[in-house]
Specification:
The chain is of the alpha+beta class. The protein contains 25 helices and nine strands. The protein has helices spanning 4-16, 21-29, 48-80, 84-92, 98-108, 114-139, 172-175, 178-208, 216-227, 229-241, 267-280, 301-304, 316-324, 327-348, 350-357, 362-371, 374-391, 395-416, 516-531, 534-543, 550-566, 568-579, 599-627, 657-661, 672-678; strands spanning 430-432, 435-437, 456-457, 464-465, 475-477, 484-493, 498-506, 581-587, 590-597. The strands form three sheets. It has a five-stranded antiparallel beta sheet with strand order 4-3-7-6-5, with no helix packed on it. The protein has a two-stranded antiparallel ribbon with strand order 1-2. α3 (48-80) packs antiparallel against α16 and α22 (568-579) packs antiparallel against α23 (599-627).
C-alpha cells in the first residue's frame, strides 16, 4: 500500500498535466517567437514595458512620415509645379483606405494575432516610404529652376530682359514630370494609410489589455510623451534634409533662402523606411497576449472567452445602432471631427505660413514648426498623466478641464491672428482681381515669364522685383560679394511714380519684422497648456463605451474621422491658401505652384478657418462635460468594465447577448493617437 500510493499520486499528477486543445492554445498565446521557434531566453521580453518601447519607436518613425511630408510639401510644390490643392489631395490619400479597413480591422483584427497584424501593416508603410522617394530617382534634380539643361553647367543663367522674347520657348521636359510625380506621391501616401490602420487600431489596445486599468494613464502618458517625438522628428528630419541641395553632390550656386532652392526632400523617406524596417521585425515575435503576473486571480469574464472566436457580421448593424444611441459617444465624435479639421488644417500649413509670413527658409520653417517647445510639451503630457494617476479626478472635473484647455487654444489662435509681417512689396505690379499683374508698360517687351521666382531688390532698398527680367535688367556684375544686376531700366521711383535706370541686388530687400519671436512664444505656451489634457482626452475616448463595444466603436470612429475630418481639411485649407495667392508659377500657359502670397489674407484665412472649426467642436465638448456624470468605473479594476451607468444601458434580452454581438478587447482610434500627438500645437 505504501508503494502504490506514490504511484497513484504520480499518475494523477501526470494526468492533470495532459493539455487540452484550449490549454495548448493558451500556452502558445503567451510565448514569444514565430511558429515553433520560441526559445526560453526570448520569453523575458514578453512584458508590457518591452512592447511599449518597441511600439513607441515604431510610432515615432510612423508619425514622422506625416510631418516629414508637411515639412517638404512646399519644396515638392516648387519642384514639380503643383498647387496647394494638389498637396491636399496627396495628403488625404492615406485616409481613403482606412474608410473601410478601419471598421473591418476593428471588428475582426483584435480576434487575431494583433502584434503580427501591426507588423504586417508596418511592412506596407516601409514600401510606401520607398514609393514616396521614387520621383527623385525617376526625374532627377530640378536643374530647370536654375536655367540649366544639365548638372554640369558652371554658371546659373539669369532671366534678363531681352526684347527678342527669349523666354517664349516652353520647357516641356519639367512639365511632363508633374503628373507622374504626383501619382507616385499619392500612391505612397495611400499605402502609408493602408499599412498604418492596424498600428493605430490594434497596437494601443493591445497594451491597454495587458496592464491594470489604474496603470493605463501612466503607460499612456509615457507612450504619448515618447511618440511626441514622432512629429518632431519629422520636422527635424525635413529641416536637416532641406539644408542640402536635391542632389547633395552638386553646388547650385544659390543660397537656401533663394526661392529656386530645392532641398533633398527624398532622403528623409528612405531614412524613415530603414528605421521602420529595423523595428518592425521584433514586432513579429511578440505573443498573442502578454503573460499575466497575477496568476492567482481569476481572469475577468470577458477574458474567458477565447480571442480566437470571431464575431458575426450580421450582428454589426445592431451594435452600430447601439453606439448611435450613446449621446456621449456621438457628441465626442462630432467634437473630435470638427477640432481635427481646425487643428490639422492649421498644423499642415504652418511651415508654409512661416515661410511666407516671416520670410523663413523651408529648412528653418520646418525646424520651428515641429521643434518649438518640445520639452514643454513633453513635460505637459507627463505631468497630465501623472496627476491623473495620482489624484484620479472624477470624469466631470476631467472633461471640464479639457473644455477649458480648448477655449485657451481658441484664445491663443485668436492672438496669433494679429501677429504678422507686412506683405512683400512687388514694385511695378498692379492688382488684377485677387492676383498681381507683373507686366507693365516698361517691361512688356522683355518676354518675361513667371516660370522661375528670382527676386531682386531695387536701389531704394524696399522695392522687390519678381526677376531681373521684370526689372528690365540686361547685365550682371558678379565680381562683388553680392550679385549686382546692371542696366535695369524698369526700376520704379515711387516718389515721382516713374521708371528709371539703375542697378539692383540679388535676393529680397532687407526685411525687418520682429513678430516671429512673439509668435513662437505664444505657440510654445499654448503647447504646454494644452498637452496637459492629452491623456485625459484619450481616457474619455476609451471609457465612454462598454469594453465589449470598443472595438467596433473606435473602428467606426476611425472611419468617420477619415470621411469627415482627414479627407476634408486638406482640401478646405488648401483652397483657402490658394485663394490668398498673388503670383502663380506659369509655364506654357499652365499654372503650377504659388510663388507669392498676400501675407494678410494668408494670416486671416488660416487662423479664421481654424478658430471656426475648433469653436464649434468645443461646444459639443461642453455637452460631453454636462453628460460626463454618466461615466462610471473610470479607474476601478474590479468587476465588469462598465463605462456608462447601468441606467443608461439598453435592456438585454439575455445575459450573454453582448458577448454574442461582439467580443473583442479595447481598440484604439485608427488615427486619433497620432493626430492627438500633433494637435497639441495649442
Amino acid at each position: 500500500m505504501k508503494k502504490s500510493s506514490p504511484k497513484t499520486s504520480s499518475s494523477e499528477h501526470r494526468f492533470s498535466r495532459v493539455p487540452t486543445e484550449e490549454t495548448d492554445q493558451d500556452a502558445e498565446d503567451i510565448l514569444c517567437g514565430v511558429g515553433t521557434c520560441t526559445p526560453g531566453w526570448l520569453q523575458r521580453f514578453a512584458n508590457p514595458k518591452v512592447y511599449l518601447l518597441n511600439f513607441c519607436i515604431l510610432g515615432v518613425a510612423q508619425g514622422a512620415y506625416f510631418t516629414y511630408f508637411i515639412g517638404v510639401v512646399s519644396t515638392l510644390e516648387k519642384r514639380f509645379a503643383f498647387e496647394s490643392k494638389i498637396s491636399g489631395i496627396i495628403m488625404i490619400a492615406d485616409n481613403l483606405s482606412p474608410i473601410l479597413t478601419s471598421i473591418i480591422i476593428g471588428y475582426y483584427g483584435s480576434s487575431g494575432h494583433r502584434p503580427r497584424w501591426v507588423a504586417g501593416g508596418m511592412i506596407i508603410v516601409v514600401i510606401s516610404c520607398l514609393v514616396s522617394a521614387q520621383p527623385y530617382f525617376v526625374f532627377g534634380p530640378a536643374f530647370h529652376l536654375l536655367s540649366k539643361t544639365s548638372g554640369v553647367a558652371n554658371e546659373t543663367q539669369h532671366k534678363f530682359c531681352d526684347f527678342r522674347g527669349n523666354d517664349t520657348s516652353c520647357d516641356t521636359e519639367h512639365l511632363s514630370s508633374t503628373l507622374p510625380a504626383v501619382s507616385m506621391l499619392f500612391i505612397g501616401s495611400f499605402l502609408n494609410g493602408f499599412g498604418s490602420t492596424a498600428f493605430y487600431t490594434l497596437g494601443t489596445p493591445y497594451l491597454d489589455d495587458n496592464v491594470k486599468k489604474k496603470d493605463s494613464p501612466l503607460y499612456f502618458s509615457v507612450m504619448f510623451g515618447i511618440r511626441l517625438f514622432g512629429p518632431s522628428l519629422g520636422f527635424l528630419l525635413s529641416s536637416f534634409c532641406l539644408r542640402f541641395y536635391e542632389n547633395p553632390f552638386f553646388d547650385p550656386q544659390i543660397g537656401r533662402d533663394d526661392p529656386r532652392w530645392i532641398g533633398a526632400w527624398w532622403a528623409g523617406f528612405l531614412f524613415l523606411g530603414l528605421v521602420l524596417l529595423l523595428f518592425t521585425v521584433p514586432m513579429f515575435f511578440f505573443p498573442r497576449k502578454l503573460p499575466s503576473k497575477q496568476k492567482s486571480k481569476e481572469p475577468p469574464k470577458t477574458e474567458q472567452k477565447s480571442t480566437r472566436d470571431m464575431p458575426k457580421m450580421k450582428d454589426m448593424p445592431k451594435a452600430l445602432l447601439k453606439l448611435a444611441r450613446n449621446p456621449i459617444f456621438v457628441c465626442h465624435t462630432v467634437s473630435l471631427t470638427l477640432r481635427i479639421n481646425g487643428f490639422l488644417g492649421y498644423f499642415v500649413f504652418l511651415p508654409k505660413y512661416m515661410e511666407n509670413q516671416f520670410r523663413q527658409s523651408a529648412s528653418t520653417a520646418s525646424f520651428f514648426s515641429g521643434t518649438t517647445s518640445i520639452l514643454t510639451m513633453l513635460v505637459g503630457i507627463l505631468l497630465g498623466g501623472a496627476m491623473i494617476r495620482r489624484f484620479k479626478p472624477r470624469p466631470r472635473y476631467l472633461t471640464g478641464y479639457m473644455v477649458g484647455v480648448e477655449f485657451f487654444s481658441l484664445a491663443a489662435l485668436f492672438a496669433s491672428m494679429f501677429i504678422g509681417c507686412p506683405s512683400l512689396d512687388m514694385a511695378g505690379s498692379t492688382a488684377v482681381g485677387n492676383q498681381l499683374n507683373l507686366n507693365n508698360e516698361c517691361n512688356s517687351g522683355c518676354g518675361c515669364t513667371q516660370r522661375v521666382f528670382e527676386p531682386i531688390c531695387g536701389p531704394d532698398g524696399h522695392s522687390n522685383y519678381f526677376s531681373p527680367c521684370f526689372a528690365g535688367c540686361k547685365g550682371l556684375n558678379n565680381t562683388d560679394e553680392n550679385l549686382i544686376f546692371t542696366q535695369c531700366t524698369c526700376l520704379l521711383n515711387e516718389t515721382v511714380n516713374q521708371y528709371q535706370s539703375g542697378d539692383a541686388t540679388n535676393s529680397y530687400c532687407p526685411f525687418n519684422c520682429g513678430a516671429f519671436l512673439p509668435y513662437i512664444i505664444i505657440l510654445s505656451v499654448g503647447k504646454m497648456i494644452s498637452s496637459t489634457a492629452r491623456v485625459g482626452n484619450t481616457l474619455i475616448t476609451l471609457r465612454c463605451v462598454d469594453a465589449t463595444e470598443k472595438g467596433l466603436a473606435l473602428g467606426a470612429l476611425g472611419a468617420i474621422l477619415s470621411v469627415f475630418a482627414f479627407i476634408p481639411y486638406p482640401l478646405i485649407f488648401g483652397s483657402l491658401m490658394d485663394a490668398a495667392c498673388l503670383v502663380w508659377e506659369e509655364s506654357c500657359g499652365k499654372s503650377g505652384n504659388c510663388w507669392v502670397y498676400d501675407s494678410e489674407k494668408f494670416r486671416y484665412y488660416l487662423h479664421g478657418a481654424s478658430i471656426s472649426f475648433i469653436f464649434v467642436g468645443s461646444l459639443f465638448d461642453v455637452i460631453v462635460f454636462l453628460l460626463s456624470g454618466r461615466l462610471k468605473n473610470f479607474y476601478d479594476e474590479e468587476g465588469k468594465d462598465v463605462a456608462l451607468d447601468s441606467t443608461e444601458r439598453n435592456d438585454k434580452s439575455s445575459p450573454d447577448e453582448d458577448d454574442d454581438i461582439l467580443y473583442m478587447p479595447n481598440v484604439s482610434l485608427q488615427k486619433t493617437a497620432s493626430i492627438n500627438d500633433i494637435t497639441s500645437t495649442f
